[in-house]
């Protein structure tokens, strides 16, 4: 099987590529624009054999997408390419509309043209798997807002969309486009919505790697508001397993929510990382006694969602997937990975990986 993975040099995309190459005989065509967060070094060289093809292509470039489809003849598309940082979307929403909405439209049209002309057997087996986020649902009531003992609601596959940020609105738009292309044109699609991912090879602007690397450098650890916002945390390698399973076995026109079963307050996440670093990196910077001393509360983000939580019972029941990592085991693995892979994140922070790619 040949899988075209868009955004395969990004955080979740590279986890998907690594998982497929390490656990199957399938071929991966990794299509990535290589923006600031794209890094082909997130796919180790030992995995980049005959079953790995890299195409540096923008999903907004219809002509190049047509060439890629015709040249490589994929059996499935796993669409992960997206702008995904909420703060960046607040500061500059246009790029998010361009990539997440226009780019998804352009990719859908290229996939539809390719799929329409496939032989009957190949056409029957083709799937367009669109990977999205739980942020499209908006937010859920915080436990502090509800009477004691109230059962806390969860996002289900049929939860109404109510995005809060330019990022989540752009992803909601792309989800609607994918479903429209299935209903109007018959393009075989499936959609997955996931909770917050964390793990190895994560670009340092996101919360978990940002906290780890700032702490190691003795810098402040900014926490929005009082840090009470709740997220469901999903280890990225568990997510990659789920995504590959959906691409292989998911039902056309269905939606699957993928969650980690790990609701944590943001402050609790930061404090857990600090405590792990106290244990695993005891030689602390700036004469601090413990890493929690670096925590600093900052003005809250505009429109900050109070709580996300996924009901992942459907994918468990229908495809027999459950996360293997608890938050405790996954966050320990993540901190250990950053401590043991200094070269990777130093090259990211310095921009050296980009210079090497450009021949600088």
Q: Could you please describe the fold and organization of this structure?
A:
By secondary structure, the protein is an alpha/beta fold. The protein has one domain: NAD(P)-binding Rossmann-like Domain (Rossmann fold, 3-Layer(aba) Sandwich). Helices cover 43% and strands 15% of the residues. The protein is built from 13 helices and twelve strands. The strands form three sheets. A seven-stranded parallel β-sheet has the order 3-2-1-4-5-6-10, sandwiched between helices. The chain has a three-stranded mixed β-sheet with strand order 7-9-11. Strand 1, helix 1 and strand 2 form a beta-alpha-beta unit. The longest helix is centred in the N-terminal third of the chain and has 24 residues, at 93-116. The model has no long low-confidence stretch (mean pLDDT 95).
């Amino acid at each position: 099987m040949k899988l075209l993975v868009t955004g395969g040099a990004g955080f979740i995309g590279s986890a998907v590529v690594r998982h497929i190459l390490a656990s199957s005989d399938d071929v991966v065509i990794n299509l990535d624009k290589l923006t600031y967060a794209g890094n082909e070094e997130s796919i180790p060289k030992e995995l980049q054999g005959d079953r790995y093809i890299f195409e540096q292509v923008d999903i907004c470039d219809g002509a190049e997408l047509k060439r890629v489809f015709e040249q490589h003849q994929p059996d499935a598309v796993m669409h992960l390419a997206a702008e995904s940082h909420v703060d960046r979307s607040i500061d500059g929403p246009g790029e998010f509309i361009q990539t997440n909405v226009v780019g998804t439209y352009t990719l859908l049209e290229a996939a539809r043209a390719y799929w329409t002309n496939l032989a009957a057997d190949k056409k029957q087996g083709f799937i367009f798997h669109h990977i999205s986020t739980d942020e499209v649902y908006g937010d859920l009531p915080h436990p502090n807002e509800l009477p004691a003992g109230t059962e806390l609601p969860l996002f289900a596959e049929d939860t109404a969309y109510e995005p809060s940020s330019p990022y989540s609105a752009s992803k909601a738009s792309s989800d609607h486009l994918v479903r429209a292309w299935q209903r109007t044109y018959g393009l075989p699609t499936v959609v997955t919505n996931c909770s917050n991912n964390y793990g190895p090879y994560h670009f340092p602007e996101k919360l978990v790697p940002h906290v780890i690397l700032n702490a190691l450098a003795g810098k402040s650890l900014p926490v929005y508001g009082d840090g009470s916002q709740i997220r469901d945390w999903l280890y990225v390698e568990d997510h990659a397993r789920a995504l590959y399973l959906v691409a292989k076995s998911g039902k056309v026109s269905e939606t699957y929510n993928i969650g980690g079963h790990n609701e944590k307050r943001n402050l609790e996440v930061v404090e857990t990382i600090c405590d792990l670093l106290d244990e695993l990196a005891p030689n602390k910077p700036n004469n601090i006694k413990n890493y929690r001393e670096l925590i600093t509360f900052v003005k809250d983000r505009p429109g900050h969602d109070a709580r996300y939580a996924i009901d992942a019972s459907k994918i468990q029941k229908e495809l027999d997937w459950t996360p293997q990592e608890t938050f405790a085991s996954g966050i320990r693995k993540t901190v250990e990975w950053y401590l043991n892979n200094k070269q990777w994140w130093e090259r990211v922070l310095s921009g050296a990986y980009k210079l090497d790619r450009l021949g600088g």
